[in-house]
Amino acid sequence: MGKKQVSVIWSYIAVVLIAITVALCVAMYTVINTKINLAKEEASQAAVTETVPETSVEVADVNASESVAEAENTDISGVKMLTYWENSAPLKQQLISYVERVTDESNSSFIPVDRRIAVFDLDGTLFCETDPTYFSHSLLLHRILEDEGYKDRASKFEKQTADKLFKHIETGKAYENLDMDVSKCIGSAFSGVTLEEYDNYVQAFKTFPMPDYEGLLRGDGWYLPMIQVVNYLEANDFTVYIVSGTDRYMVRSLVHGSPVNVPDSHIIGSDRDLIASGQGDKGAKDYNFVSSDKLITGGDVLTDNIQLNKVKAIVREIGIQPVLSFGNSTGDASMAEYVITGNQYESLAFMLCCDDTERENGNLKNAEEMNKMCMEHNWIPVSMKNDWTTIYGDGVMKKITVVDAAG
């Protein structure tokens, strides 16, 4: 092989080597560039991931701030919340002034939150008691005289009591110990049922129409101006209790599903016995509750929560002297006097006067007597006729009776 041929061969080899070198460089550049791009993408994704939670936290902080601001801007003043009251109403004027004083820490009348206790009677104070009588009495009459599942099983005593109660409502005739007999019958007529069954019965009765009103059911007879008082006090950190002469379990059922925001634990009323389903003839001290037992209503009345018994119940179950009392009758007099007597904090007592005969089945004689009692005892009277812009709300009309037409 001559020198010229060898030279050509080496030229080819050199060209090949150069081509291989270029190819390797291109490949290396491609790999390196790909890794750099992947690294950039990962860094970008990481940055986005880190940013998202910060943005979420910022949004949450904004929402929380808005909620706090909204809560702080909620108007809980009496002017805003007592809209069913005439501005001239003594309760509206005095209660607003009172609440402003006792909730102001810089005021000498300031009352700590745990001492802001208000007690309300039920019938005639928060709820209608004149259509034609108390809710509890109407329920009992329905049970004994109308309930197809019970009226044939009603005892002779229950039927006699129902007859007396009906005549008392119709004619005003007085019967000795009628109230106590009615309490006994409520106990016996609803004995042997669970509290859930009892509640269901009351809920069903609440759907019946009120006899003297258009657009009102049995369970809707709440005095809307007084419900505003309850809401106003609760908004200003008062704890509200209902202290009623009505059966406690019945009051609980009446409140369930109502506009009144008072828990069962803050409802005090007349009490009757509860027994275990498997207790038999054994006394409570001789029987232990077992897993198969259910609590059912007994027939015995334990306490009739009126007059002084209301004070005793407050001491026993609340343990703190209330600073506000709301009632409507002599049955609430002891409670009112207890609240305003010897109280370490400024206290007030209010009494409703049933003087509205156009929108309600008022009683002017009773209203006049209550006004006199208010003057004697330094209670603040509430005129249903003059102080309230409504009683049951729009769409509710009192029916025109024969007596109304004649008078």
CATH fold node name of the largest domain: Rossmann fold
Strand order of the largest sheet: 5-4-3-1-6-7-8
Q: How many helical elements?
A: 14
Q: Judging from the principal axes of the Cα atoms, what is the shape?
A: globular
What does this structure look like?
By secondary structure, the chain is an alpha/beta fold. The chain has 2 domains: 1-74; 78-130 and 210-288 and 302-406, HAD superfamily/HAD-like (Rossmann fold, 3-Layer(aba) Sandwich), CATH 3.40.50.1000. It is built from 14 helices and 9 strands. The protein has helices at 3-73, 78-81, 90-102, 135-146, 156-171, 178-189, 195-205, 224-235, 248-255, 308-317, 333-340, 364-377, 384-387, 402-406; strands at 117-120, 213-214, 239-247, 267-276, 295-303, 324-327, 348-353, 380-383, 397-398. It has a 7-stranded mixed sheet, with helices on both faces. Strands 2-9 form a two-stranded antiparallel ribbon. Helix 4 (135-146) crosses helix 5 (156-171) and helix 5 (156-171) crosses helix 6. The longest helix is centred in the first third of the chain and has 71 residues, at 3-73. The protein is globular and about 135 Å long. The termini are far apart. 32% of the residues are buried. Residues 46-60 and 64-69 have low confidence and may be disordered.
